[in-house]
Amino acid sequence: MTDYYRIPVHKDSPHVVNAVVEITKDTSAKYEYDKDLHAFRLDRCLLSAMKYPSNYGFIPSTIADDGDALDIIIYNSTPLERGTVVECQVLGCLDMTDDG
Predict the structure, then answer these.
(1) Are strands 29-34 and 39-45 parallel, antiparallel or unpaired?
(2) Residue 63 half-sphere exposure toward CB, CA atoms < 13 A
(3) How would you write the pLDDT of the chain (100 residues) with one tens digit per residue?
(4) Of 26, 32, 34, which Cα lies nearest the Cα of 52?
(5) What range does the domain containing 14 cover?
(6) Helix, coil or strand: residue 68
(7) pTM of the predicted protein model
(8) Cis before 8? omega within 30
(9) Widest CA span of the chain, in angstroms?
(10) Domain annotation covers residue 94
């Protein structure tokens, strides 16, 4: 069983980070990594025709204000498989508040 939260900080952090893909680009199913089960859990399926425009995931070995790892949008042209670890160059950040 892989504990994705234990993947170490990238050696070139904060300019380059390790990221774990939770949601694959061009899909309509939202998954979240369950740290207790060490597995990806289906959270919900989008009911509209909308699809996620980018790969989306989290940065291991980080903690946001909500107690979860920091979220990341992985901007590239290829859909990546859920659970893939990707080296990402940081381009910027968004300060957002989650309503849930």
Answers:
(1) antiparallel
(2) 4
(3) 689 988 999 999 999 999 999 999 999 999 999 989 999 999 999 988 899 999 999 999 998 888 889 999 999 999 999 999 999 999 998 887 766 5
(4) 26
(5) 4-89
(6) coil
(7) 0.90
(8) no
(9) 40
(10) no
